[in-house]
Amino acid sequence: MMRRHGALALFLVFVAAAPLLLPAFYVTLFNYIGLAALVALGLVLLTGVAGIVSFGQQAFVGLSAYTTAALAVHAGASPWVGLVAALALTAAAALALGSITLRLSGHYLAIGTIAWSVALYYVFGHLEVLGQYNGLDNVPAVSLAGWKLDTGSESYYLIWLVAVAALLAARNLLDSRVGRAIRALRFRSVMAESFGVDTAALKLLVFLYAGLLAGLSGWLYAHYLRFVSPHAFGVNAGIDYLFMAVIGGASQVWGAVIGASILTVLREWLKDLLPAVFQKSGNYEIVVFGVLMTLLLHRTRDGLVPAFARLLPAGARRARPPEAPALPRRAQPARGTPLLELRGVHKRFGGLIAVNDMSLAMRSGEILGLIGPNGAGKSTVFNLVTGVLRTDAGEIRFLDERIERSTQRDIARRGVARTFQHVNLVSNMPVIDNVAIGTHLRGGKGSVAAMLRTDRDEERRLLAEAARQLERVGLGEHLHEPAGSLPLGQQRIVEIARALCADPVLLLVDEPAAGLRYGEKQALAALLRKLRDEGMSILLVEHDMEFVMGLVDRLVVMDFGQKLAEGLPAEIQADPVVLEAYLGGIE
Question: What is the reported pTM?
């Protein structure tokens, strides 16, 4: 923590002193770096963290720049009026384009961003009111309290004030309840939905935020250069911005500044150096730059910020989160209350019948085991109960309310939490942050509160709850380690702690003992029994029969998607039909 604050202080001192120490050329260069860093920062959040690849951020820069320039040139509006209009139009465009584009995935999403960015580029170049390809000139400089920012050194402080504020806001955002959900979007969206995160709305929010950052850059660009033309907003500019984010570190906030600095400065140096080396003019810098970037990305795939961080001495061990008032707990239903019921549930995948006329019932306060051979349909039942999949037929009732058509978020709000058959953690995020995702529905502060740091009281309570649950499951010594660095067995326990953070009525646990040693299994069984004694109900899938038989109250056996048997553990162990299907028969 001290190391991070020290680096931030040095950066701020350097930014403040740069115009006083550097020649005018480098001040101008730093202005371009600040403008580019704003756009790259949006891409860090959008592409590096949320996993939404966009080649179209330059279109938002151009939309904002043209809006403020046209208002100033044609209507005589002040730059501050232009700022409001530019950001409003950029936000509207981002919401409209994002609501369409984000329905795509993979390379289709990236191609979609290229398509609308090219379309906007030609709009800029063909409208007479925008000066067509000649652009708009005589854009007025920004005036602040009577001080006209019409030189590079004067504009510098406005550009970097905005850039630093955006960097700090983005850092605050990622260090929050909303930020944890954003970090889960890239690879763990199903997990995030299962703990109440509205992933579609969150993706649109990140897209909007990245668009607004590009819009701020466009407004500053127009009033700094005092000239706007479409050539600055072509597809090549979008590729450059994406390069900046990747070079610095696509998932690192400060990578936006490092990437923008390296690309901008290196390009200028190569433009001067290479013609002298080859004794002729030409765009040699593009070739050399491409080779250098390829080598750089080959050696540091995660960007330069993580590489630099590894060279610095390790900081002090982060402390356990401070104690905070406990979060409100939901009332558990009385023991023996009908809790979960499946009636004639069917699920088909093409020609494969995964679940066929499945029925079961469990009551509050019991541990119900769901067992069967591989491929029997157990995990499919879990996905149907939690809303990951929709039933083709039949009913699923939770506390006597039908939920088979409910979303994952709605089911999570009702008090259903789960773990996953295959570990579903954000591997590069600390253990405590992974576990705190489970508290998502128990907090209410949004992204604006996170950016302004007004969510700290709630955040302390959420992190304290995550720490308590980790202590509860025996992992209190691993709070700040990356989740992916833990052994597989401990990662499964982290998933249980995350589910407990949701304060569930029903806990669905999918193969929790896989990868655990004997002593760890005994500790896990003791924990599950304790949870049951506290009133929690548990639906358990497990292949370790010794673990299951000594733990559960009742068993349901599945085979080929159907219920084969149901009863007490001793009854199931003696059932010849179960032995035939599950163990291959007996002599």
Answer: 0.91
Amino acid identity of 397?
A: R
Q: What is the pLDDT of residue 52?
A: 92
Supply φ then ψ for residue 549, to 5 degrees: -65, -30
Report how far apart, in Å, the C-alpha atoms of 157 and of each of 28, 31, 35, 494 are. Answer: 12, 9, 12, 46
pLDDT digits (tens, 9 = 90+) for 176-191: 999 999 999 988 899 9
Among candidates 191, 203, 211, which has minimal Cα distance to 42? 211
Q: Which residues of 103-131 are buried (b: 16+ CB within 10 A; e: fewer)?
A: eeeeeebbebbbebbbebbeebbeeeebb
Share of the chain above pLDDT 70, in %: 96
Could you tell me the two tokens for 347?
A: 């699920």
Range 527-557 burial, b when 16+ CB lie within 10 A, else e: bbeebbeeebbbbbbbeeeebbbebbebbbb
Amino acid at 315: G
CA-CA distances (angstroms) from residue 566 to 244, 367, 569, 571? Answer: 59, 13, 9, 8
How far is Cα of residue 552 from the mean position of the Cα atoms in its chain? 36
Which pLDDT band holds residue 586 (cuts at 50, 70, 90)?
Answer: very low
- Dihedral of the CA atoms 233, 235, 238, 239 (nearest 10)? -140
**Ramachandran sector of residue 144 (left: φ over 0; alpha: ψ -120 to 50; beta: rest):** beta
Across the chain, which distance is largest between two alpha carbons, in Å? 97
Cα 31 to Cα 581: distance, rounded to the nearest angstrom: 72
Select from 339, 248, 268, 272 the least CA-distant residue to 47.
248
Q: How confident is the model over 309-327, as a mean pLDDT?
A: 72
For 529, the token pair is 């029994």
User: For strand 537-541 and strand 562-567, is the pairing parallel, antiparallel, or unpaired?
Assistant: unpaired
CB atoms within 10 A of CB 226: 16
Axis-axis angle for helices 255-278, 304-311 (nearest 10): 100
Q: Which residues lie across from 241 on neighbouring strands?
A: none
Which pair of structure tokens corresponds to residue 272? 């001067």
What lies within 8 Å, CB to CB, of 525 at 6+ separation is 547, 550, 551
Backbone φ, ψ for residue 194 (5° rounding) = -70, -15
- d(CA 110, CA 112) in angstroms, rounded, equals 5
